[in-house]
Structures are given as structure tokens and as C-alpha cells.
Give the backbone structure.
Amino acid sequence: MDIQAESAVAPREQIVRIVILNAGKSTRLDGQNKLLVSAGGQPVYRWHLRAFADAHIAIVTKSEDIEVTRQAMPTVDRIIAHDQTDGPAGALAAYLQLHDDDNLIVAYSDTLIAPQPLPEGDWVGIAPLSSRAWDYRQPGGEWAHLVPTICVANGLYAFSDLDYLRACLAELGTRPDQHLPDLLNLYERERPMHDLPIAGWHDAGDYAALARVPTF
């Protein structure tokens, strides 16, 4: 009796793709490479390697920073040069010209987070923005001396439809210092993005913020 065995179909590997955008002017840090400045006793790039240890990482950075970034992060998949001053949207467009992923997580280079699961889909990372204590009236009417907090986007975004994302980038066009919210508003016409709370977020975008980052 002939027996025809069914061939097992291996499930498609789910690969997390992270692109770190580091091509900005870094004016608040006097033009320094944000990946190399110290935060909590370690260079910023070590925070990213720890947070995204199980992901495939690409970096978009200025041409002048290619070699030093490659030496600091030899395990990343790809380092892409981008010298235009067209903001995060332009840097993201430069990445998408070379990659065709199914899902993509975008991180700003000055966004430091704790290691944690990051889902696929369409979302914007949010976290409380804390400040110093103020005297203020609470919603119930009583006065208090507390640290007011609001949740803000913390420089972490996920996109599941990259063809549509490219179309939005093409519609947006390029201009100096293009802000990402302009792109998000276009993308959400067809692909609503939910807010995803992110744990352990620290900003590393200026000297004052770097001084507040806890020990690595």
C-alpha cells in the first residue's frame, strides 16, 4: 500500500524589525551622535541593544557617523546613510526605500526603554511625562502639591501596512524638519493607531534629560 505523507508546512517566522532613526541635527546636544552620548553610565546604543535584543535592527544615521556606529553596533542588520534635514519622516522614507517588511517598529535614537514585549500592529508608544511638583487644582476642585503627569508619545511607533505607509510618505513630501505627527495623521485615515503604554521610558534628547536617566 502506497502511503503519501503530507509534507509539514513550517510556520512563517515572525521577525521583529526595528529601525532606529538617528539622522537628525541633534541641536539640543550640540550636534553629537545621540547613540554615543552617555545615559545612566552607558552609551545610548547599549540601551537599544538591550531593549531590542531579540529584534533585527537597522540604523538610519548621517554619513559621517556610519563608521563609528558600525564599530559600536556591529551586530545590527544594516546602517543606512541619510544626510537630508527632512526630519524623522525623511529618515523613515530612506529606510523604506531599501526594506520591504511586513511589520515595522520605529524608534527615535533618544528614546530609551526597558526590555519588554512589543506587539505587531499599528500603535504609538506612550508614557507619562513627569515634571517637578506644582500647586494645582485637581479635577475634583481640591488643591494639591503634586507632580502632574500627562501621557505623551515617546518616540516609538509601529506600522503594519508598509505599502500604505510609503504612499503616505509620498503624499507628505519632504521639507526641512518634517515632524512625524503629520505622517501619523495621514496614516490614520486608513489605519487607526492605538496608544500602547511603554514601561521604563527615559528621554535622552538633551543634557538635562540625560542627567535624569537612572543607572543602566
Observations:
- The chain has one domain: 17-126+153-212.
- Confidence is low (pLDDT under 50) at residues 1-12.
- The longest helix spans residues 162-172.
